[in-house]
Amino acid sequence: MDINRLIIPMVNEIIDVARYNAKREIYPTKIVGNRLASKLLGITKNALNQRIHRGFYTEGYHFKKKSARIYEWDRDALLDEE
């Protein structure tokens, strides 16, 4: 049996958990604005806007509208979608 087949998935899992934990430490629990939310997700602001309009994110769970243009995002809900 090839040892790489066993080690690589385990290393990838460790890296994913470390990234998740680092993002939880760096970003606040409530993220105001699409720019910072898109940075957390590693996507462009336009890609985030497309996801909003396609219904990928749910108002009340992923975000709350503070005004017509300002969204307050839930960090943990976003990280769970990655």
- Return Rg in Å: 16 Å
Number of strands: 3
Integer tally of domains = 1
**What does the overall shape look like?**
elongated
The helix-strand sequence is HEHHEEH
Main beta-sheet strand count, sense and barrel state: 3 strands, antiparallel
Residue windows where pLDDT falls under 50 for at least 5 positions: none
End-to-end span in angstroms? 32 Å
Q: What is the spatial order of strands in the main beta sheet? A: 1-3-2
**Helical content class:** 55-70%
Task: Report the β-strand fraction as a percent range.
Answer: 5-15%
**Helix run count:** 4
Mean pLDDT metric = 94
Q: What structural category do the secondary elements indicate?
A: alpha+beta
Structural account:
The protein contains four helices and three strands; from the N terminus they run H-E-H-H-E-E-H. A three-stranded antiparallel beta sheet has the order 1-3-2. It has one domain (3-81). It is elongated and about 55 Å long. Helix content is 59%, strand content 12%. The termini are far apart. It has helices at residues 3-26, 34-41, 45-53, 75-81; strands at residues 30-32, 63-65, 71-74. By secondary structure, it is an alpha+beta fold. The mean pLDDT is 94. Helix 2 (34-41) crosses helix 3.
